[in-house]
Automatic annotation (TrEMBL):
An example Gene Ontology molecular-function term: phosphorelay sensor kinase activity
The name this protein goes by in its record: histidine kinase
PANTHER family xref list: SENSOR HISTIDINE KINASE TRCS (PTHR45436:SF5), SENSOR HISTIDINE KINASE YKOH (PTHR45436)
Organism: Mycolicibacterium sarraceniae
Source lineage: Bacteria, Bacillati, Actinomycetota, Actinomycetes, Mycobacteriales
Chain ranges passing through the membrane: 17-40, 149-172
């Protein structure tokens, strides 16, 4: 497998949390480890200096008697003691410590490092006492402790990364459940009830996805309704081609009037609204036997009502709902038909977000009311 696609992959949330935890732990461990590292170095050096102080304090009272009279220190018999008095230099071993310019110093003799404590004595006059101890053992002990600090720091960073990975595993469980539920959704399925618990962020994402799926499902229903409307229109358009003008030519005695009204604003499909009005007029003429049809429109804050009144036979009250169903005809219909005219009117009203209803007309026949909502 090529390496480039692998490195281009976005790391998982668990990996990011583990990496961030390791980085944070490394920073903290580095700071603490540095402090401990320096503390160990200083502590070991101070311990050695205290040894030299004790050895020097034990030897000082014996210096006036001569170097041969200085007994070994009861607590540290391995120290090297060098006494200088003028040009005379005496040492208790084959090692002679070089003169130092400070109270505490580190020097090297024959390839061996020594830590030296220098004491200037007032008596005998011009006498210097130098007490030294090998420094290599202290350095080895210090390095051993330093290695332990490094191991502990590395283990701490590794443990922090592992804990970050483990905690992130629990944290991403709600997201994994959400992904599993989303994968189970098939095309055309109704928007499922996404149930997500746990972290607040997971709940928010779950609610957002649920809302998205509900909106998609709503739009699918609207699309399917529009497609059904188009299919119905194509299926029945051959049966409903007569317009009011055709009805007027077939029925020369038909009187069509438009009631004057203020300008009404409607947001909709002109062809669909024209189809609804045409079918209402044609239904009044063909099936109601009307000789007079009056169209009016009233605008209000709630919307627009288009009324088609006629002086025909009307529609019985008990049948006013079912005649809007497809292939349903009223009992007073005088001509044969398909039963789709008023169904198309109701369909167009629904597509425009409104309703269609029947009532008694002041002209004595039926009043068809097309109620459309106000534009937003």
């Amino acid at each position: 497998m090529p390496l480039a696609p692998i490195f281009r992959r976005t790391p998982s949330l668990r990996t990011r949390v583990a990496f961030a935890t390791a980085i944070g732990a490394a920073i903290v461990v580095t700071i603490v480890g540095t402090i401990v590292w320096i503390g160990i170095t200083n502590d070991r050096l101070e311990r050695l200096d205290r040894r030299l102080d004790e050895a020097a304090g034990f030897a000082v009272p014996f210096v006036p008697r001569g170097l041969d009279q200085i007994p070994p220190s009861p607590n540290d018999q391995d120290v090297v003691i060098t006494v200088r008095r003028g040009d005379q230099v005496r040492s208790n071993s084959d090692v002679v410590l070089p003169r130092q310019n400070s109270d505490y110093a580190t020097t090297e003799v024959d390839g061996i490092r020594y830590r030296v404590r220098t004491v200037e004595l007032s008596y005998p006059e011009a006498t210097t006492l130098e007490v030294g101890a090998t420094y290599d053992d202290t350095i080895a002990d210090t390095n051993n402790l330093h290695r332990r600090v490094l191991v502990i720091c590395a283990l701490a960073v590794g443990a922090a990364a592992f804990l970050g990975w483990a905690l992130a595993t629990f944290a991403v469980r709600p997201f994994r459940r959400l992904a599993a539920q989303t994968r189970q959704i098939e095309a055309g399925d109704k928007a499922p009830d996404v149930e997500i618990g746990g972290a607040t962020e997971a709940v928010e994402i779950g609610e957002a996805i649920k809302g998205l799926l509900e909106r998609i499902w709503t739009e699918q229903e609207r699309t399917q309704a529009a497609l059904a409307s188009a299919r119905d229109f194509a299926a029945v358009s051959a049966h409903e081609l007569r317009t009011p003008l055709t009805a007027m030519r077939v029925y020369p005695e038909l009187e069509v009037s438009l009631a004057p009204s203020p300008t009404c604003i409607i947001i909709g499909l002109p062809a669909g609204l024209r189809l609804a009005v045409d079918n209402a007029i044609a239904n009044a003429v063909k099936h109601g036997g009307a000789t007079r049809v009056q169209l009016s429109a009233v605008s209000s804050r709630d919307g627009v009502e288009i009324a088609v009144d006629d002086n025909g036979s009307g529609v019985p009250k008990a049948e006013r709902s079912e005649v809007f169903e497809r292939f349903k005809r009223g009992s007073t219909a005088s001509h044969s038909g398909s039963g789709l005219g008023l169904a198309l009117v109701a369909q167009q009203a629904e597509l425009h977000g409104g309703t269609a209803s029947l009532a008694n007309s002041p002209l004595g026949g039926a009043r068809l009311v097309l109620s459309l909502p106000a534009p937003h």
